[in-house]
Design a protein that fits this description.
mainly alpha; elongated
Length: 357
Amino acid sequence: MPFEPGDGRRSVSPLSTGRASPALRAPRRVEDAVAQKDKTTRRYATAIDRALSSFDSAQQEWADYIAFLARLLKALHPPPPALEYLPHAQSVALRLAQCLNPALPSGVHQKALDVYATIFSFLPPPSLGQTLHVYLPGLVPVLSFASLSVRPIFYSVIEDHILKLDSEHIRPATKSLILSLLPGIEDETSEDFDRAFRILNVLRKTSSRDIDDGPDAEGRDGYFWQCFFLAVITNPSRRQGALAFLTRKLPNFTPSETSPDSSQVEDRTLPLAAQAAINPEPGLLVRCFAAGLQDSQILVQRGFLDLLVTHLPLHSPVFRNHVRSKDMVLITTAAASCVLRRDMSLNRRLWSWFLGP
């Protein structure tokens, strides 16, 4: 029986969505209103729609993708003055994502990234930030299959446009951006390792800067680390690259040497950066390490055991004052399961963590 107005029964719907950050998506009706703003904008929207209609996914060779992208790029130039939102943005993003299919040659990928860069260049930063969720799904997997000629263009798109946005626009996309950049630092000997690592570190500072607190400072990168831990937990294929970043940038959770007694370690003995990394959910750090210790690749297990020994010893205040008992059981069980590998290098690191220095 449906509820009647005034029958005294309360609705089970929540009063709010509980979001900590605002919903930044631009409604479709806003884009439609922009498209109908004036004659120039309507003509611009018609040209884009005509270029999109020339895309036929059922009967295309790779050369046809190049021709389609050239037509789309021609339709995008020049944009009308004071353009706020790109007309038919969702359709454009869909076609660009299809042009970034791993089965297509690198020439198509380069052309598609050029179109992304063109769109991002003439959209105002607030508008790009509000519509970033439309374009990002096509960009996220690029580094996992990109050739050496495509990677610099991808890095330029991230550096020149996305990382220039305010932190309030980058925060909702932080985890996706982390996952998109981790393949670039999997091989520490690759020629683009330094650039990918630098971009990821800039993302750490940009996304973690408090919106109202001014410049970045120590202890304000907790939001980035929480997203990073989630990325490691949910994406086994990205853990090799994540390990390279953790080895260089993870805060040390070892108690201060000046503490009077290691059995009475207080919160203040943790550095500010370490306190930020476990706020508001210290269990994410534990589950991140547990996921790495149970990875199918022995090199990943070895790397996370090294991090346990150097950054997260058993006498750390994290285990004593922050995590729950079931989280402690989880990471101990995950570490102990490494002996099933019957690998001496893993066993040696495990005993170092259990027995201490």
